[in-house]
Amino acid sequence: MLIGLFDFTVNCICWVSCILIMAELAFSVFGRLTEHVVDPILRQFKYLLCYKSNIKNLTNELEILENKKTEVQAMVDTAKRNAEVIRPLVSAWLQKVDDLNKQTDEVLKGAAISEMQCLFLRCPNLKTRYLLGRKATKKTVVTVKLQAEGSFERVGYPTPPVLMPNQSSHQDFYGFETRITTKKEILEALKDKDIYIIGICGMPGVGKTTMANEVATQVKDEKLFDEVAMAVVSHDPDIIKIQDQLAEKLHLKIEEKTESGRAQRLYARLTYDNKRILLILDDVWKEIDLGTIGIPSKDDCEGLKVLFTTRNEDVCIDMGVQRKFEVEVLSQEEAQKLFERAADISNYTINVVNSTAHEVANECGGLPLALVTVGKALKNKMPHKWRDALQQLQRSRVTNLRGMHDLVYSRIELSYNYLETDEARSLLLLCSIFAEKQSMPIERLVRYARGLELFQNTDTLSETRDRVYSIVDDLKRCYLLLSGEEEDEEVKLHDVVRGFCLLDRPGYLVKHADLEEWPKDNNESYIAISMTFGVLDELPSGLKYGHLKLLQVRCDSGEQNISQEFFNDMQELRVLEFNWMNVQIPLSIQLLTRLQTLCLDYCDLMFDISMIGSLKKLEILTFYHSYLYVDFPTKIAELSNLKLLDLRFWTGPCPIPPGVLLGMKKLEELYFGEYFETRDEEKGYIIKEISSLTALNTFQISTDDTQFLMQILQVLCVENLKRYEITMAEKKGLSTGDYHVTRRLDILDGMDAGTLLQCGFNPLMRTAYQLYIVKATAWKKLVSGSDKDGFFNLKKLRLSSGDFEYIIDASYSIPSGTFCNLELLKLEGLHNLIQICNGNLPRMEHFGSQLFHNLTTLDIYNCDAIRSLFRESVAKCMMNLQRLDISKCPRLEEVVSTDTQENLVAEMLGFPKLKKVTLQFLSIFKSFTSESNKVDDCQSLFNQVTLPNMEMLDIFQLDCIVKLLGEEEMPITSLSKIRVITVGSCGNLRTIAKSDSIKLLQNLEGLVVSDCAKAEVLFDLEGLKVNNYDAEIKILGRLNSLEMSALPKLMHITRMVPKGICVFQNLKSLVAKECGGLRYLFSLSMVSSLVALETVRVQSCDAMEAIVGSEDETWELEKLEFPKLKDVNLEHLSSFKSFRSKLDSVNVLGTLFNRVRLANLEVLDINGLGDVSVLFDFEGISVSEGYVESLLGRLRSLKLERLPKLVNITRMVPEGIHVMQNLTSLIVLDCSNLRYLFSPSMANLLVALETLEVYECQEMEEIVGREKEGTSDIDMVKEGMPRRIVFPKLSSLELLSLDRFRMFCSQNYELVFPSLHKLVILYCPLMTKFCSGHLNAPELKQIQIGEGQYVDISNFFDDSGLQEEE
Q: What GO molecular function annotations does the UniProt record carry, in alphabetical order (predicted)?
């Protein structure tokens, strides 16, 4: 059979061969016809006849392709390691190769099977071979094609540069509120289409670059810009380097060589397609021409915005920023948190480290870079290292703290070196001699600088002052100096900057740590010494300070004895200041022939000071707030070079002898202090000598003698005064003047208009910066059209108890520039005042909006007649108003009234910078502004007005207000920044906000509402528009504190909360007192939102039934959870049933906490809940066998008072449950139905209990009762085996007025109290023994049995009840 099959195969092959020969003959015969007819047929036969060669060819080509793929894949792997993006063509080729391999595997596997059939002498399937040969041929063609396509020069291209996430910012300090707020404001500015360039400024190390990186990341995440590019400019900008950095981020290849050519290329890239591009220029030190870089202007590229950071505020001005943002130091709380993270001190348990850490963090002054650097340097260090670091920081001599110089001081050093003049550097170093965190009066720096001759070409003291103020401004704009407590007149030096200034300054001896003796260090090279002593008895002799130029000494107590030779070796001294000292200056002071500034301020001067007259070069002499116990010497007249004389003694006027002032021809500044009851003979020569002071430009006096003052003003040449402080006051001691003097006139004694408008006072009023007038009679209008000027220079105006009807009468016209610089306006007790401004401002087209343009504070108090403050036209000028305070104006109805001009269309009125509004005791006040033709008794407080920056609102006793925010449509930004609202005694108020107006309170953090008799609901959400019910919408999402009191009709905190609305998700504290109509605080639907709630206090709410109730019967939760609730206080709630309402089981009625999880509860105080019988019910809770679960594990304090139905503190505690193991204090008072406190098993869990007090519980029989079967996690002990209950930390136990109390525990347990040292037992008549079992209380020696009565422990109980174990 096999032979027959073989013969058949051979015959077939022969026939095929014959056919091929015939085909070839036919081809030669028929030519082209054969090519088209025979070739396809021939090709089909070749698939069969050339089957093996086809398979072999495919195999060979596949091997070549596989080698090619290996090479390409290696190139791809290399490219990926280089962070390159693989070209799509390459990825597609590799995919095609993989697909081909899968397809050819099928062909080769088929060929292999066919060969196996031949191997076993089976007849091959010709059809199969034909098909395999055909596939092999076709796949070979594809393989060869892929080989050709796989020749790649490069398989990838560089990844587009991306802004790396700023990891340190997320981990360190950019989660803090101050940073979040600043970043949000920057983002809002970037969204503004009208803003092109924005500046971020701040001191070195404050986090400007980090802020810029945060902004860059945010805008990329939010897709605000298509591209973001960042470049570092630095103090020595390299244009080409900046261009390269930007080009790299923009994937731009710049081949041009010249700056201009490269700029053109970058310009073309930035303007191409008008994409939204944000360019960030970091660390800009001076103005840089953006055009030289290639950055187009706003007009050339609308989608482009520029953001830069700088440590110099002047750069913002020079660069023409449209918005400037200052990154300030962190708040104390934020600084502490950042430092704790950096130092990882949370793991420390050593008290000295924790306490020192707080002080170390404070020394860093809230500067993030310093906090992180110091924190990391001290991480995991021993306590002595912390103490050493604190000492270094406090002394501003940081020499051994890793990273402080390289990372912190080096940045400040750059700013210091970059200062333009040596004068600026010298003044900054001068600031460093003052005590840490001290606000320094700039006037003090003026006096020091003059004495030290820091400046060239300043001939007069006035010129020196101008130079000091100019340099101070420069240093503040560089953030090397900060504003002090009085922003314009005082400065501070940041602790870290101060540390840099004193670093490696051997010529400075600065110690302000309450020293008690003069330092032993007698370094002759000192040029400046500044020290503060707590107690100092003597200034020693033998000090050799031959180069010393400045000496500043302060002593807070003691009587300082100065050796006669103290000044012998200080001949170079130029500035000498003694503060708060009781001194007798020695004669050796006369050796200080170069001394130019002598300040004896806040001192007791009980010595002859005539020797001061020998200091011929002295230019500045001050006795500010000192006590003078001797006569003022005439020898002072010899100080012919004196330019400043300050006689503002704390003891009052200093009687100046005749002739003293005559010799002081160069005197520029004279401060008289208080000058009362001047004798007539004194008046004459004082006036005469003042008239001789032709160089005088600064004058201060306080007197009650109008005639005397008028005579002085007549001879003074008031027009030449640059600065003055003149006070008319009838009472002594009202004022000795501020340390700094500007231009201030106070008329406190009452004066008629005629006198005030005379030539003496009128010029002062017109040029004053501060004006305070009390009881100005017969003066109806402060400014009117007849005036020549309108108080152009005035910054602060205070009017009290006068006859004014209008401050401004604009009926016809008023002077140009009226009150254009006024910052503060305070009006009080002006009972005739009708309005601030009479008339409509728009009538004065030439005047424009200068009136009140700089007003920031407006305070109106006790003005009986005023109905509205001003008209719309005036209100529109107050674009910078920040604080508005109105109180006790009984006729006031509104703040802004509608202009009376015809054809005016009502429009929304805006106060864009108003931050705080206080409205109090305004009985008929209706609204902030209202339309004159509209009468609406229910209009809201804020209508037709937007207050986009208001942060605080305080209203009290506004009887006509029905709601703060109504249903009127207002812009979403109109109240978007309000943080705190306080409402009190508004008798008609019914609600805080309704409907969509609640959305305006998106940033509200605190709300206090009290004594509002008609308030029914705080937030009424009925009608609130919700567009998407599936998305969670957050309302009042930042509110963290809510306090309500004396609201008898309050029914709901929130009402009609729609589905999909999440409220109060950040609420931390809620207090409700005397809210008689409130049945519950929260609905069940709100519970899931209360994830941040920490404190709940409810007191005297008679209708309160539960904390959690339900508006919707369909809502039901099996278990309520308050994950962060720590403190619960419930007092005097007569209707209270349970923490949650609608409990179905009869068994749990009267249970305070049932199916409520309080994992973090720490303090629980329950008082006066009449229906509560069980505090905690654990029925239904189970634990797997072998496991233990802790409940109420963080509870530290539990106080139960006046609970008449209370039977159990805990009920049904199952096995495996541990409760209250951290309870430290338990107080139980007047719980008349309570028979015992704990079961034995629970008592053994109270391992942390320190204090136990039980008072006036009539049914109380014992503290530890009997175990209930099935609820103990301690196996029942067999009879005769010892049993113990241990209270390891209980130190104080008090049992008072317990009528039925018999003993602590009646069962046969051994009671162990290793820490008990206080035991008080009073009025327990049935108690005969302490316990039935053994008592072990080694620390207990005596027992208190009465007020001041104690007995020895061995005599109190009978022997059977009390035993002691040594």
A: ADP binding; ATP binding
